[in-house]
Every structure is written in C-alpha cells, then in structure tokens.
Amino acid sequence: MKIKILESFSSPYVAFVRVTAEDGSTGWGQIAPYHADLSALVLHRQVAPWVLGTEVDCDLDDLMDLVGEREHKFPGSHLRRAMGGFDTALWDLRGKLAGKPVVELLGGKPTTLRAYASSMKRDITPADEAERFRRLQGEHGFDAFKFRVGAEVGRNADEWPGRTEEIIPTIRRALGDGVDLLADANSCYSPARAIEVGRLMEAHGMVHYEEPCPYWELEQTREVTETLDIDVTGGEQDCEFSVWKQIIRDRVVDIVQPDILYLGGMARSMRLAAMAAAADMPVTPHAANRSMVTIFTMHYLAAIPNAGKYLELSIEGEDYYPWEQGLFRNDPYRVEDGRVRISDAPGWGLEISPEWLENATYQASRLDA
C-alpha cells in the first residue's frame, strides 16, 4: 500500500504533518519547532517528491538516506526537520494499521518514565527558580531538575554577573541532597571557564552538565569531558551522522542527547541509539517543549537498550511558550510521582486539536498531482 498524500499544517513555531495511504488510512507527525513554516515548505519541495508513492512498510531508514542523497546539495537542519515530520507521521500510520503503540513497533512496550523538570528560563532569579522547583517537587513528585547557567551562546558572559555562582548552591540548598540536579550552559563557555563552572557543580553534587562549550567546537567540549567527573552531555543540535560518528568515536561527551526531530525522525534516531550503544554510551534525548516531540521521545526511551535516566519535560507555560497552548485535545503529559506514562493507544496515542488545525497554514502534496 502506497503513500498518496502528504499534508502540513503550520505556524511559525510548530507544524504538524499528516500522511495518507491509498486506503485512506492516516498518520500524524510533527516538524521540529521554530521556523517550522520554513521547514514545512522544505517538506513539500524537497521531501515529498521522494516519499510519495513509496510503500507504507518501506525500509524507512533507507528512505531517509535516499532523501538526503537526492537533496545532497541542501544538507542541514531544515531538510532533517522536514524529514522528521514525514517519518513521525508514517510511524503513527503504521501503529494505527497494526493496532499498536509506536513503542511496540520499535521493540519496547508502554511503561512509565522518570522525568526531570526542565527550566528554560534565564531571566529568573536563583531564589525564584528554587521556589518553583520546590512547588513542582511537592505537586508532582519530581526528583530531578534542570536549570540554566551562563548566557545562551554567551561568550563566557553570565545572564547577569554572579548568577551562575549563586544559582548552583541556591538550588542545592533548596532541594536537598536527595534530588538530581542538571544544568544547561547552551554553548556559553570557553573550556577554561566551562571547567571552572563544572568544578562548582561537582562540589554541589550535580550530575549532568549540558553543552558547556560552543556545540560546533567538538575539541573544546572533549577537553571539558576529559577533565571533569560530572557527566558532560550534548548533541541536540547535531543532525548529520558524519558529526555524530566523530562525537561517539572521540567520546566528545559522556551522554549523547539527540533531538528526534532535529535529527530527522525516529528511524534515524534509532540508528543513532545503536551507534551509541555499541560505544556503551547512554542516550538522554533533548525534548525541550510540550509539542509532539516529547511524546516521540517517550516511545523512543522505552524502546532503546541504552536509555538514560530521564525524560526531559519542560515546565514552562503560557508565559514562556504561548504557542504550545491548544495543540492537543487533552494534556498528554500528566506527571505523577515524578513519572509520565506512555499511552497504549495505537500510534502515538495523541489527538491534535481540530481548532488549531483550522487556523494553521495548509499545504498538500499528492501522488497524482
């Protein structure tokens, strides 16, 4: 049975994708957030010509390679993001046809996952961040939290002077020793400064230090990894296997953090997990918002043998991510005792809001067009 129609419903922030097979069966996926309307155009211009007319049960990993080969003059993020939209929609279609959740198609089973409460904010004082972490700990049972240090791609600057040195001990004092603390530097530091901040993290029992140096400077990150005892993590931005091979071969980080949609979908993410498993490296994916990407990540973590300790779960709401509001009919991210549950419904087990779709920018590519 062939794929007949590929549709996108987009805003500048997020784009959903629907694939339709010859018998009318459909599946839903998502293009990576941010400038998603641009990636939706790439979907129709550079992905649709190579995937329409292929079989629903095709070798999807090979098909994604084929798209990259046919579009070899245009490698990079927007192409991979667009590919991820098609890939995740096809997995949903396959799951619905089989009457199984995607996690079972990947070799796992529905379960609950430990989540860490992930803060995206830098414009928040250490005291205020500690207070909201305490509240979330009491309301939802989180026992792991991630906060931000430095400034985003900050060239060694802090968000304001002294914030990093203040927030690390403040969060530890507020939450106590029984909680895992993680931090993200978002490519802020030179190796020397990254190591200095990492030592402070180690002194306060932190366990995860994300993207300490400019992510494209692999040797800088490797220097930090080799120097510190805390787990250095990264990889969310990397969408090409040529780079991932170097990251894994040279052990640039201790824990790899692919983003399923930045990388180009589930098939490519499963391949990366196998590469990391062969090197005995755990995978703790990037999933920094409550669009469909976190659902994809839940199914992924429950299917791979080298899953890391946590699911990233954004704690930001309407004030920070207004575009997240109204995406789904029901909230798929209910947290109990610090854990979230994977649905056992077919496919992704998710229903996108019809009202949101009605207001989105619509495009379609058809096999007979």
Low-confidence stretches: none
Helix and strand run: EEEHHHHEHEHEHEHEHEHHHEEHE
CATH domain fold name of the largest domain: TIM Barrel
- Give the total of domains: 2
- CATH top level label of the largest domain: Alpha Beta
**Shape designation:** globular
Largest sheet geometry: 8 strands, mixed
As a whole number of angstroms, the C-alpha radius of gyration is 20 Å
Oligomer: single chain
- Percent range for β-strand residues: 15-25%
Identify the CATH architecture of the largest domain.
Alpha-Beta Barrel
Instruction: Name the CATH homologous superfamily of the largest domain.
Output: Enolase-like C-terminal domain
Q: Approximately how much helix is present in the residues?
A: 25-40%
Structural class: alpha/beta
User: Could you give the distance between the termini?
Assistant: 18 Å
In DSSP terms (H or I, runs of 4 or more residues), the helix count works out at: 13
Number of E-type strands: 12
Kindly report the average pLDDT value.
97
